[in-house]
Amino acid sequence: MTKAVHIDATDIVIDSEESDTILEAAEKSGYSIPYSCRKGVCSTCLGTLIKGEVQDRSINIKAPADSVYFCQAKPLTDVVIRPTDWTKYDPTSRKKLDAKIKKINWLSTDIAELVLRFPIGVRAIFNAGQYLNIIFDGQTRSYSMANPPHKNAEAVLHVRKYEGGLFSDAFLANASPNEKILVEVPFGDVQLTLDSHEPLIMLATGTGFAPVKSIMENLIHLNIKRPVHFFWGGRHEPDLYMSDLVKSWNEKLDWFTYTPVLSQPPEGWAGETGWVQSAALKHLKGHTQCSVYACGSNKMVSDARDLFIDAGLDIGDFHCDAFVPA
After folding, report:
1. Which family, according to UniProt (predicted)?
2. Which candidate in 24, 74, 88, 182 could, as Cys together with 135 as Cys, close a disulfide (CB 3.0–4.6 Å)?
């Protein structure tokens, strides 16, 4: 039996099937609310339940309630919700595509570049900064595209190997060229507003560099010279696994600035030290008329959101993609 999901202060009413989360029901009806991990970890989808009752995994939540995970909450009654934002969305734009492994390149000891190619004539339509889901053994794993949207005959993914990871460890260990993979694309709230001229601050940890690379290569391709300051954080220098590419942008592009940040720097390190979100906030210096894109670990994304909003950044100017080990 369907339940009605009413977005507060609008005339929008969404039908939710019994198995749908609020996020899924919204997308099926042509609306998108902010999200990132879709696993109830990153807090991007948090919103307010004004009326009704929902179930978040095994917990029933009755209104009024703040901080409800709309990516997990399933309506038990008709509900009224207040998301942080909502936009129109074309549900037909998301498609399942058959892909094959083109090649696997190891960018570091634990990060692989997985290149997937689509059948002749098939293109994956996405915006810079978005991600796809790999459907594997009945489960899904999410990876951001590292390639720009105009190179959409394939998908380039940066996959960190996690010990015991279902996909990153078990699958990659035995994967070979031409092996088939089913993907669904696109997903994600990290997409650049191309007509904005506000300065752009991007933060990444680890493979959070993948969507940053997509965004940067898209800006370069479109000849958009928007001021960009990129902060890339890691424990050790090898964690910044494509630093030569980023340094080349820093040398060639007068609108781009690169600040590497290490929490455990080697002797003689010339970059910033500590947490990447703290380093970025220090450079903000009270100038909150900007857009912030944070991609990487859940802790970094969560901390960055709190720090920047406390410093005066509008919540609508903070965009994120939180990564969950896979």
Report:
1. Belongs to the Fre/LuxG FAD/NAD(P) flavoprotein oxidoreductase family.
2. 182
265/233 Cα distance (integer angstroms): 11
Number of domains in the chain: 3
- Please give the distance of CA 127 from its chain centroid, rounded to a whole number: 12
Cα(228)–Cα(317) distance, rounded to whole angstroms? 14
Residue-wise pLDDT for 107-146, tens only, equals 999 999 999 999 999 999 999 999 999 998 888 889 999 9
Is residue 319 located within the same domain as residue 223?
A: yes
Q: Which residues of 200-237 are buried (b: 16+ CB within 10 A; e: fewer)?
A: bbbbbbbbbbbbbbbbbbbbeeeeeebebbbbbbbeee
The DSSP letter of residue 145 is B
For residue 181, the enclosing domain spans 92-187
CATH number for position 157? 2.40.30.10
Whether the Cβ atoms of residue 271 and residue 230 lie closer than 8 Å to each other: no
Q: Is residue 32 included in any domain, yes or no?
A: yes
DSSP of 109-137: SSEEEEEEEPPTT------TT-EEEEEET
The predicted-structure confidence for 258-277, as pLDDT tens digits, reads as follows 999 999 999 999 999 999 99
Task: Say if 309 falls within a structural domain.
Answer: yes
